[in-house]
Amino acid sequence: MALWRLYYHLVWATKERQPLIDSDREAKLYHYLMGKADYLGCIVHACGGVEDHIHLVVSIPPKLSIAEFVKTLKGSSAHHLNNPLSADDNKFGWQEGYGVFSLGSKQLEQAVNYANNQKIHHSQGTAIASLEYITDLDDPPLRA
Known about the structure:
The chain is of the alpha+beta class. The chain has helices at 23-39, 66-81, 108-116, 118-124; strands at residues 7-13, 43-50, 53-59, 99-103. It is globular. The termini are far apart. Residues 3-118 form the Transposase IS200-like domain.
């Protein structure tokens, strides 16, 4: 078994940045993402967000590419939330692209706190602009 210590801060948005992550979906979505990441052999250190985007601080083993990890989580979580048995008519989807930032072990705690406190950062205007970009095409970054 290989030894690895890799930390990433990922961020991605809902389709057209619609406010699709409401209080009814939030717990179900986060629980699903953490379970799927665990199934893939990843470690979720934090998962948080607001109505139109999420932040995930995660360790991804080197055998799995970041792109494949994000693709799997985005696709399967949208499918899960749009389960045909769901009574929700408001279809869930993710926007293309994502942002990824690599972290050192000394930055992990700060990233975890930032992701876990997204609602506070956005309501108080203390969101860090450079961590709110979803892709390099975003201009301006997600607003608080």
